[in-house]
Design goal:
This protein has 119 residues and is α+β, with helices and mostly antiparallel strands. The protein is built from three helices and five strands, in the order E-E-H-H-E-H-E-E.
Length: 119
């Protein structure tokens, strides 16, 4: 199952996709011009609103997801976003995408328990 990864960072216009792994050139072209804000239409926007990990099990079945052109360019169905915080302020969002739909919600308390962290 293909997995795509992106990291979003903030500039004066909002959050933008700063890194790319496994996304097509077409998707990168679409993403490069977009600045995301805290709102319900995107995964990154939802993560910024929640200040916590957010999963969209199937973007095609989610009536609030508004980036259909980006979904078509990459072919992903399931998204997971994790905020990167400095104190309580978001400084970035880790964005993971998978081609198949995952209708089982993530267990946020255990999802990253074994991930290495640095002080």
């Amino acid at each position: 199952m293909p997995i795509w990864r992106r990291f979003a960072r903030q500039d004066a216009g909002g959050f933008y996709h700063a890194t790319n792994y496994n996304f097509s050139v077409d998707w990168v072209r679409l993403a490069d011009s977009i600045r995301l804000q805290p709102e319900r239409g995107s995964l990154i926007g939802r993560v910024l609103l929640a200040g916590a990990a957010v999963q969209i099990p199937d973007v095609l079945a989610d009536p609030e997801y508004t980036y259909a052109d980006m979904q078509k360019a990459a072919g992903y169905r399931t998204l997971l976003g994790v905020p990167l915080l400095r104190g309580k302020e978001p400084i970035g969002v880790l964005f993971l995408a998978a081609r198949r739909s995952n209708s089982s919600p993530i267990n946020r308390s255990n999802s990253f328990r074994h991930s290495p962290t640095r002080p």
